[in-house]
């Protein structure tokens, strides 16, 4: 019989960066903690990372460990939320790619949805695997060697995937089952099965949500411009921090 605290004693990592889809991190986090798991939010920087609701800024989440401080060996499983900005930042980070590879190499459970599988593709982990994702990245995953299925939940060995927020009701129980499993079934490609076809049109609810989103205020646009100018002044056009350039001149 399943108990509410069936993940008691499990320690999990949630790897996320700025631009994570809020519902895809916050809802799974609450479910994992309610099941008794200890979850560390691991990110590329310290402090609090910014979530989004589609493209609109949302609340922030506190980072427990940076990617440089976190040891995959300390964790029993990995959660990779989506959002199109968050995984795009993570996939460009060599330490993040190596962090994810360590979980797969140890056959620890990995749960991801939406654009999260982008990170797995960039880490070279999808050849021969079967999964799902946000439909818009289907071709990227197929080109990385995966079989892509248009289903709300796909389990393949230690990998659990869903298409996006619309599948949260299926993803959360599937994720909990995956993290409660001590010996996942071996990964296997769907025998003789090709990937499902590309969608005929973009996801309708996402288009509608973007269409009716409010315009950003002048203050918000000015803030973005000031932040970009400050970043450029801090790091310079070559991306090198001003104190590094100064040290070089002093030497």
Automatic annotation (TrEMBL):
Keywords: Hydrolase, Protease. Gene3D superfamilies: 3.40.50.880. Pfam families: DJ-1_PfpI (PF01965). It comes from the Bacteria. CDD domains: GATase1_PfpI_like. NCBIfam families: PfpI. Residues 12-172 form the DJ-1/PfpI domain. It comes from Geodermatophilus telluris. One of its GO terms (biological process) is proteolysis. Belongs to the peptidase C56 family. One of its GO terms (molecular function) is peptidase activity. This is Protease I. The lineage of its organism: Bacteria, Bacillati, Actinomycetota, Actinomycetes, Geodermatophilales.
